């Protein structure tokens, strides 16, 4: 369990660094390796990771000049982000930080939304 917790923390910290540096594709990859093996689980934490990945995809699509597909990815992020409110996990504070960074990046990339 401790090893799994460390790998979640490492993946999330890498995700944060990539987001803050505008490396959205890399951010997606940082969490993909964590999420993909567990994607079929009925688990809100895993679903939240999917939302975070979709936020990074949205930002990468905006960066590539593809605003319409980016909106689809953003809607997926919005679908899963409310799961954080009731999630019980030792990583909650880290996830709160991620949401704040995602919202800040969205404001920079889409100031009118």
Kindly describe this structure.
The protein has 113 residues and is mostly helical. The protein is globular and about 40 Å long. The chain has helices at residues 2-20, 24-35, 44-63, 67-80, 92-109. It has one domain (2-109): Hyaluronidase domain-like (Orthogonal Bundle).
Top CATH class: Mainly Alpha
Instruction: Say how many strands there are.
Output: 0
- How many separate helices? 5
Q: What's the CATH superfamily, by name?
A: TTHA0068-like
Average pLDDT taken over every residue = 93
Helical residue percent?
over 70%
Task: Report strand %.
Answer: under 5%
Write the layout of secondary structure elements.
Layout: H1 2-20, H2 24-35, H3 44-63, H4 67-80, H5 92-109
Helix pairs in contact: 1-2, 1-5, 2-3, 3-4, 3-5
Please summarize what this structure is:
With 113 residues, this protein is mostly helical.
